[in-house]
Amino acid sequence: MALVVVYFLVLCLIPISVNSIKNSHMCNRTETYLEPVIRSQSDVVRIGYRQVPELRQRVITECCPGYGLSYSVCEPVCAMGCFRGHCLEPDTCSCYPGWNGKKCDEKCSPGYYGLNCIDECSCKNGASCSPVTGECNCTDGWNGSSCDIPCANDTYGRYCENKCMCQNGAKCNNSDGSCVCSPGYTGETCNETCPDGYWGLNCSKNCSCKNGAVCHPDNGNCNCTAGWRAQCNHINGSCICEEGYTGIKCEEVCPIGTWGKNCAESCDCKNGGKCLPDTGKSATAKNNAICDKAEGCICTDGFTGITYVSELPDLHGLKITA
């Protein structure tokens, strides 16, 4: 019985060869060890056995330094671990796309993506880039693979999926859909004209209509009261005078002897004729005629003709008047 126990102990101390390792990351090393050996001994009376340790050497096959056995394969070991990647070589991580750093625990810097974060993103106009694929995530108001195409005038928002509601030629903000009204209009969708007395961008300026006139709700022109002639430019608020009137507010009639737009023409009335101060349409008057903007020359008694240079005959002591 003692012999069997000793034999079992000897078998347990002999190293088992690693024959099932399947890759080349294996190394051999020689190991010196003491091996118990059973020796027989005898005397005159009896024969016996005893265990004697002997110095032996053996070759150990195992994973090389930096590698560890995993499912019968010697795999590299990264002591710090690889957070988003795998261990490629001892203490060397190979990171998944979108990750970087010694432990693969750092995302790609903005503007870069892919394996080892070496690819540069093509995104524009504030768009973010997927650190994994490089796909652009456009900001509101932009479209296209590189986010370099602005939304059309009638669309806005993320990937230009929303329809603008702006009216009357207003410009739609491509990001949030807010309306930038044309001069003369107001309201959330620019569907309202400026209130009476206001004009211009955002209806922020006062219209200079005077003497009870009010700005037209559509175009800003002054609706003059009786006896006044002018229109208000609803873009810049200036007065547009009718023919025969002048002044900042069109409050002055043309000076005597002038007529027309901005009183730029001369009325050549002869023989004492005068242009009416509030008229002056193109005509030439002579012989004390008066020049009317609608009818031409208004002749004095005794004269007729287109330019009123012919004296009328005396009919029964009466003269025709024009």
Structural commentary:
The chain is about 5% helix and about 35% strand. The protein has one helix at about 1-15, and strands spanning about 25-40, 45-65, 65-70, 75, 85-90, 90-95, 100, 105, 110-115, 120, 130, 135, 140-145, 150, 155, 160-165, 170, 180, 185, 190-195, 200, 205, 215, 220-225, 230, 240, 245, 250-255, 260, 265, 275, 290, 295-300, 305, 310. The N and C termini lie far apart (about 165 Å). The model is unreliable at about 1-20, about 280-285 and about 305-320 (pLDDT under 50).
What's the layout of helices and strands?
Layout: H1 2-13, E1 26-42, E2 47-63, E3 67-70, E4 73-76, E5 85-89, E6 92-95, E7 99-100, E8 106-107, E9 112-113, E10 119-120, E11 128-129, E12 136-137, E13 142-143, E14 149-150, E15 155-156, E16 162-163, E17 171-172, E18 179-180, E19 185-186, E20 192-193, E21 198-199, E22 205-206, E23 214-215, E24 222-223, E25 230-232, E26 239-241, E27 245-246, E28 252-253, E29 258-259, E30 265-266, E31 274-275, E32 290-292, E33 296-298, E34 303-304, E35 310-311
Parallel strand pairs: 31-32
Antiparallel strand pairs: 1-2, 3-4, 5-6, 7-8, 9-10, 11-12, 13-14, 15-16, 17-18, 19-20, 21-22, 23-24, 25-26, 27-28, 29-30, 32-33, 34-35
Termini gap: 163 Å
Q: Structural class of the helices, strands and pairings?
A: mainly beta
Main β-sheet: number of strands, strand sense, barrel status?
Answer: 3 strands, mixed
Number of helices: 1
**Uncertain residue ranges:** 1-18, 281-285, 306-322
The main sheet orders its strands as: 31-32-33
Portion of residues in beta strands equals 35-45%
Number of strands: 35
Helix content: under 10%
Q: Estimate the mean pLDDT confidence.
A: 76
